[in-house]
Amino acid sequence: MTGKSENLSAGGLRLSPTTPLDEGSEGTATVTFASGTRITVPVHVVWRQTSGSNSEYGLRFDRLEGEDRVALLDAVYAQPGKTRDSEQFDALPGAHTAASEPISTLSPSHHAYYLRLIHRIEKTHSLSLADTDRLLFAVLQQGRDLASTLIEMKLTPYDKLESYLGDIYGIPYANLNMLKPDASILDIIPESVAISQNVVPIQRIAGNYIVAMADPLDLPARDIVHLRTKGQFELRFGFLKDVEKAIKAVYQGASIHSADMLIDEATAAGKTIELYKEVQEVADLETLRRLSDATPIVSLVDSILRSAVEERASDIHLEPVDDCIIVRFRLDGILHEMRTIPRNLLASVVSRIKIMARLDITERHVPQDGRIAMRYSGKDYELRIACIPTVFGEKLVVRLLEKNPTFKTLRSIGFSERNYQLFAPLVRRPYGMILFCGPTGSGKSTTLFACIQEIHDGTTNIMTVEDPVEYRVRGINHVELNPRRDLTFPTVLRSILRCDPDVIYVGEIRDRETADVAVRAALTGHLLFSTLHTNSAIQAITRLVDIGVEGHLIGASLIGVVGQRLIRNVCGWCRETYAVPSIEANLLRDVLGVEEVPKRLTRGRGCAHCHNTGYYGRSAVHEVVVVDEELRHRIGTSGSDATPLLDHLRKTDFQDLRADAVTRVIDGETTVQEVVRVTV
Ligand SMILES: [Zn+2]
After folding, report:
1. Ligand 1 centroid vs 174 CA: distance in angstroms?
2. Which of 248, 254, 175 lies closest to 212 in space, CA to CA?
């Protein structure tokens, strides 16, 4: 039997064999790695997932202990990038081969470091085999953060984390995300030593240098620290990635907060050679080019772009005001002021970005837009640049898009179980119209691409018309609007219909003409997805009536509508529970309709990870309207009146956005304030 495995962990294996297996069947598997290592493990099939003609299985290794366990651990984790070996499985009926494809994002040195560290944790805290395996898998294969995984796995509560980590080496743990190293004591350890030994001086207390070290067992590194500080030091333990980040931030000015050095350099250079004085109305190309090519400006712009990627920002705003330029990042949907830059650097910084985006740097009075390709930390990004003249000068907005993101599957998009059960069958219908609604930035395209991915198996012709094309997916025909060449939603849609499509995605329905063609396409055997900018799913239906589509045509073509919002999650680093005050309890009861208000809820205290907001990351909440016979009839007859539609929904399983969001509050994933902000 042959197959392909996607995940291999010490606990089991995900496998797609060519011959079907039975759930529950047992046997022995012989796993052979290219390195020659061979182990024999009892296995059983624990789950099976079928999509189309392919089936995936989860095989669990049973009773894997002692030598065999170590051999497998070594093979799976010890050699990053080398686990794409082929393995032979010959226990279950016949023999099959598998090639594992780990999604490890760790570099070899990080890989080895975290492997060592986790084994040390296993020993110090007597972890069970299963816990060690889960930890190894999460950190080494999935590239997840070790500390937050420890908390998620409930190996330690958040408030005991520091002492838990301190016990590993018997040395206090230093959270370098919170402690900013004191730049004035950096001289004690030169940058090259810090980088090669993975140590960073943090501060000086009572004559002693406090030095954080990634591996406190590294004796040569300890000796060097001893030598450099003449024995006046205390050690702290910090994670390798945090030590490296701290080194970058303090020595190399990679963080946006340490861009001051670059700014000092830039302004100092400006004073001496008068390069950076405000460029007047008529700026000649030569001057602007010289300004923007100066090394400090190049580094400053790079450090802003890099730190935006590191902070997971979706947009960067550079806003001139009368006395400075404000740099703001959009994090989880909300703008945060990150720092300011001296006003006299405006022309140079803007020109630098414009040159990168191949825009006209002499034109400063008309809006322009362009793109920059950037590679950072092994990932490709596309930066969309837009500049617009404001009364204070040119404002610049940079949108960051990851170029080849791994799209979420429909299962992992964050639908509640009931919404998933309602929605998933719609995507497998052969034809009809499915609409997504919600404001800009509510995650509609992520959900849409999850749907398309569900359908995209190489047997269908999927065509899109978008404004602009956001993500490019191999095998999908994306068409971008270009009104100057008469590529508009209705014209492109008509052309698409002549190209034998099965599935069509129309970026947005905003006029009668597009709506008419879309409805007709859905009625003539195509599965059509589109979006509308309405607040609720029901409003999407009445909006179509308002723009002039006949009710009975909408009823006949529409199969479902999904309303969506993104709500911020409580930060996993600083989450805490609190007694619900009466004002909040009343709000939950009277406004949000919660019948039994819990005594305690969850919130984030605010920490360095979440910029003191208490939130980190977002998840989607939904409302799903499935068009059944009764609703179809009512849409056909009620015109733009939403009441009869809502009356019917109340009699069904329908749960609106707010109700979905409230369940997330009860589950401790988000807060009441966030639900109010997003849905009220
Ligand atoms: Zn936090």
Report:
1. 16
2. 175
